[in-house]
Specification:
The structure holds 2 protein chains of 2 kinds. Chain A is about 25% helix and about 35% strand. Chain A is α+β, with helices and mostly antiparallel strands. Chain A has one domain: START domain (Alpha-D-Glucose-1,6-Bisphosphate, Chain A, domain 4). In chain A, strand 5 (about 90-100) and strand 6 form a beta hairpin. The longest helix of chain A has 14 residues, at about 160-170. Chain A is globular, with a radius of gyration of 16 Å. Chain B has helices spanning about 1-15, 20-30, 35-40, 45-60, 75-120, and strands at about 35, 60-65, 70-75. The relative contact order of chain B is 0.09. Chain B has 2 domains: about 1-75, Winged helix-like DNA-binding domain superfamily/Winged helix DNA-binding domain (Arc Repressor Mutant, subunit A); about 75-120. In chain B, a hairpin with a 2-residue loop joins strand 2 (about 60-65) and strand 3. By secondary structure, chain B is mainly alpha-helical. The radius of gyration of chain B is 25 Å and the shape is rod-shaped. Classes of the chains: A alpha+beta, B mainly alpha.
């Protein structure tokens, strides 16, 4: 599926951790090998964001990416997948934008059950610790996201059917 | 082995094919409940609810515990395994994403170095 990945030398691995922190919270952490200023830039400039948000092993492509990164500004991401009859949209708005240290945004494609995502960028010795925190409106909303089987960040029902496929593709591409 | 796996799937599908049983799982997701609570909530006889819970229990979706005369139901081991599996898939998605982010950041760092050198000239 993804021969390119296999032919590359294995890059130095820094551990990505994920856990359900409470009834309403999911937390993912990862250290990125670069200063917070650059990591923040890669997260907030569409032309850079596009290059990493959809890993090839997901089998999806990003059709468009609009990001108005300022408080109250909106974002809209559109994806396609060979198995999806029509493009999938994810959208919301930025609640907080603190350059090089903190981003908070809503996930509104799923209606009221969407989570609020907070990412903090903490620089230490030229590396950046990323903490991505998803807060769901209720225990039920997070339970439902898990029960739906979708792992694309709880990003809407369209992913339900795709999920199995993505897992299969991911496994065969040696993802993770 | 294949037979066992298949049988497991069949039991789960059968368990989940019923709207009341799906409702019971949803209810238990919000907290433990006794058979009596469940029977009342779904307007059903105790015997009827016991049958439904029995099917869910067999599928590993619910577990029950009898203390005195009250049988309390909660989500079973299967459900917890599913949650753990979901979190692991979620972790893998982010791991793949962050691997790509690492590459983008690396390129930007290189570019800054080159640009820095140019400026100094």
């Amino acid at each position: 599926m993804d021969a390119r990945r296999e032919s590359e030398p294995t890059p130095m691995k820094t551990q990505t951790a994920a856990e359900r922190k409470s009834e309403r919270e999911l937390v993912v952490t990862r250290t990125i090998n670069g200063p917070a200023r650059i990591v923040f830039e890669a997260w907030t400039r569409p032309e850079l964001f596009k290059q990493w948000w959809v890993p090839k092993s997901m089998g999806m492509s990003m059709l468009s990416c609009e990001m108005d990164v300022r408080v109250g500004g909106r974002y809209r991401l559109v994806f396609s997948h060979p198995a999806a009859p029509q493009p999938m949209e994810f959208f919301g708005r930025y609640l907080e934008v603190t350059p090089h240290s903190r981003l908070v945004w809503t996930n509104e494609e799923g209606g009221d059950s969407g989570q609020v995502t907070t990412v903090t960028f903490e620089e230490k010795g030229g590396k950046t610790l990323l903490v991505m925190h998803d807060l769901y409106p209720s225990k039920e909303a997070l339970d439902d996201a898990i029960a739906s089987g979708s792992t694309a960040g709880g990003m809407g029902e369209q992913f339900e059917q795709l999920d199995e496929l993505i897992v299969t593709l991911g496994a065969s591409a040696g993802l993770g | 082995m294949v037979q066992y796996v298949r049988a497991g799937f069949d039991v789960s599908f059968a368990a989940l094919s019923d709207v009341t049983r799906r409702g019971v799982l949803e209810r238990l997701g919000r907290g433990d409940a006794s058979i009596t609570d469940l029977a009342e909530k779904f307007r059903m006889t105790l015997t009827g609810m016991k049958k439904h819970v029995g099917v869910l229990e067999q599928a590993g979706l619910v577990s029950t515990d009898k203390v005195g005369r009250v049988r309390t139901c909660k989500l079973g081991p299967r459900r917890l395994e599913e949650e753990a599996a979901w979190i692991e898939r979620y972790r893998q998605l982010w791991d793949a994403r962050f691997d790509e982010l690492d590459k983008v950041v690396e390129e930007l760092k290189q570019k800054e170095k080159v640009d820095g050198r140019k400026k100094r000239k």
